[in-house]
Batch of 2 targets.
Target 1
Amino acid sequence: MMQFVGRLSLDLVSAELRTVDHLKAWLADSTLEVEGVSCSPRELAAARRVAKAVEAGALAAARSRRPPDDAVKLLNRAAAMPPLTPRLDPMTRDFSWQRPTVSAAMSEVARDALAMLGDPEQRRRVRTCANPDCERLFYDDSRPGRRRWCSPERCGDQARARAYRARHR
Ligand SMILES: [Zn+2]
């Protein structure tokens, strides 16, 4: 099952990217909604490197540390590639991406990561889930900004159930 944590670049980190088909499925299901992209094993490897760099940068942000230089370099390079080009069909008014590529999609992901890591207010909202069985990176987009779980339904409820059992033991 695909897991989304509410922020494009962090969604890529929690994606399973073992095969070209995994990446294609993620691209279609992500907020980018990139359909029908062709993807080579080389492009899959590039996407995995972007995911690793986002993870390294986000973990550093979650620990209030500077992101590793190589991760920043890789994200800067990916973001420098042309992003996706939007297209509106004048007749049907359908929105689509014009000849989308993996590189353009990864440029979008890297741009999102750089915006997140480059802004103190957004950096503060990058966290790892407080559920020790999860520890997934997530972005807290709640107004007070005090979320502890990647998903209140998945991990928040588990944690509350555990606390309840502990109290009644
Ligand atoms: Zn979690």
Target 2
Amino acid sequence: MVVDPVCQKEVDEKSAPGGKARFRGEVYYFCDKSCRAAFQRSPQKYLPNKGEEKELNYDPRMFLGDM
Ligand SMILES: [Zn+2]
């Protein structure tokens, strides 16, 4: 099992109901198509900030909730 990065539910990667999406070389699986759509709109919102690779469309508003 893997964890859906959007809603944190466990998803079986062999039959993920929401399908999967690739981001920066990692594959993520989703419990629902709406979770996948949300992830694809703004993947960084759902992933831990690794503090590297600043994106061209970097948006400082993403970090207002941190700390
Ligand atoms: Zn989900």
